[in-house]
Design goal:
The chain is α+β, with helices and mostly antiparallel strands. Helix content is 27%, strand content 26%. The chain has one domain. It starts with a helix and ends with a helix.
Length: 107
């Protein structure tokens, strides 16, 4: 059981407004199929907009943004930061395989 926890996947992402202010977030997925981090990152990068952005609602992730919306600075996209293995408990009910299937299908 502990070995499975060490195999969870942490997706690190952020919201950056036009003024370069940032909010960071993470989501943690279970990885029962033991997919390698490099393969996961390649699939995520292939699904990004302009090699770095994604629509968190389309991907089924919690959108990051500031509480007060500023039409001059704010937008809907979030920015991919990194992926790594973690022993932290999953924060979403999808496996990493289900997540990858969704983002590949919806691009």
């Amino acid at each position: 059981m502990m070995k499975d926890l060490e195999n969870n996947i942490k997706l690190n992402y952020l919201y950056r407004d036009s003024g370069n202010y940032k909010i960071y977030g993470t989501e943690i997925f279970s990885n029962p199929e033991h997919i390698k981090v490099e393969e996961i990152e390649r699939k995520v990068r292939d699904a990004l907009i302009d090699s770095e952005f994604f629509d968190p609602l389309k991907w089924g992730l919690k959108p990051l943004s500031f509480q007060e919306w500023n039409d001059d600075l704010d937008h809907l996209w979030n920015e991919f930061e990194s992926i790594n293995l973690t022993a932290e408990t999953p924060t979403v009910d999808k496996t990493i395989t289900e997540f990858l299937d969704k983002i590949v299908r919806d691009r």
